[in-house]
């Protein structure tokens, strides 16, 4: 099946979404590095304006990732539809959880009434342990990893598809490794997971965009 001959009419918007994921991912990485460099201590939470920018960028990136994986599902070969459907479901779960987390942080957590709560840090901070931190780890280190593992099964033939497959698998593995920060009570370990989804992830999506743009490059 070739892109130009199929019933899939959204190649260019999907390519644009892939490029947007990569571009926003690069901006997110730069903002994160700047935020970390601004910290007086590695144990401190990144402050504004970097923190707010990071929150907004995640609210943009996560839905775009979900839409791209959904497009992969519609475009996948029939014998790989089960894998692509699972990938899309897990990515939408990831996007829903992380969007709720970061929208809550941007809105409710900054209200004077919320800031006066005795357990404000436990609910709203990104210092372990906290509710929003745990949910974000669940979203990115677990559901994102599951999604890209299943998505990797769609890409099996051809050099470009094997590159995508490798990027997705390594991204997912690193994201899962980030979960080890919880039992070891060391959130520095979670930085490995961040490399998986925030560094390799956008690169994988950029290559997926190239895959959508090439005729005759379907996963069959």
Keywords:
single chain, 220 residues, mainly alpha
Notes on the structure:
There is one protein chain. This protein has 220 residues and is mainly α. It has one domain. The chain contains eight helices and no strands. The protein has helices at residues 11-37, 50-75, 81-106, 112-115, 120-124, 131-152, 159-177, 190-213. Helix 1 (11-37) runs antiparallel to helix 2 (50-75), helix 1 packs antiparallel against helix 8 (190-213) and helix 7 (159-177) packs antiparallel against helix 8. The longest helix is centred in the first third of the chain and has 27 residues, at 11-37. It is elongated.
Short description:
By secondary structure, the protein is an all-alpha fold. It has 8 helices and no strands.
In this structure, how is the largest beta sheet organized?
none
N-to-C order of helices and strands: HHHHHHHH
The percentage of residues in β strands lies in: under 5%
Count of all domains: 1
Helical proportion, percent range: 55-70%
**Overall pLDDT:** 89
Q: Structural class per helix/strand content?
A: mainly alpha
The count of strands amounts to 0
Number of helical segments? 8
Rg calculated over all Cα atoms: 18 Å
The span between the termini is 8 Å
Poorly predicted parts? 1-7, 215-220
Write the layout of secondary structure elements.
Elements: H1 11-37, H2 50-75, H3 81-106, H4 112-115, H5 120-124, H6 131-152, H7 159-177, H8 190-213
Helix pairs in contact: 1-2, 1-8, 2-3, 3-6, 6-7, 7-8
């Amino acid at each position: 099946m070739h892109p130009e001959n199929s019933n899939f009419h959204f190649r260019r918007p999907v390519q644009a979404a892939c490029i947007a994921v990569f571009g926003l991912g690069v901006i997110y990485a730069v903002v994160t590095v700047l935020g970390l460099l601004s910290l007086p201590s590695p144990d401190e939470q990144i402050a504004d304006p970097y923190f707010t920018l990071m929150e907004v960028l995640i609210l943009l990136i996560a839905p775009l990732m979900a839409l791209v994986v959904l497009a992969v599902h519609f475009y996948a070969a029939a014998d790989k539809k089960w894998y692509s459907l699972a990938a899309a479901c897990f990515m939408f779960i990831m996007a829903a959880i992380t969007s709720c987390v970061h929208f809550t942080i941007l809105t409710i957590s900054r209200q004077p009434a919320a800031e006066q709560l005795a357990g404000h840090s436990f609910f709203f901070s990104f210092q372990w342990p906290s509710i929003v931190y745990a949910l974000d780890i669940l979203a990115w280190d677990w559901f994102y990893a599951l999604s890209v593992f299943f998505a990797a099964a769609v890409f099996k033939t051809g050099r470009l598809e094997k590159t995508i497959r490798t990027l997705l698998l390594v991204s997912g593995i690193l994201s899962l490794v980030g979960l080890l920060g919880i039992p070891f009570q060391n959130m520095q370990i979670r930085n490995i997971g961040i490399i998986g989804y925030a560094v390799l992830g956008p690169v994988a999506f950029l290559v997926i965009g190239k895959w959508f743009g090439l005729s005759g490059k379907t996963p069959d």
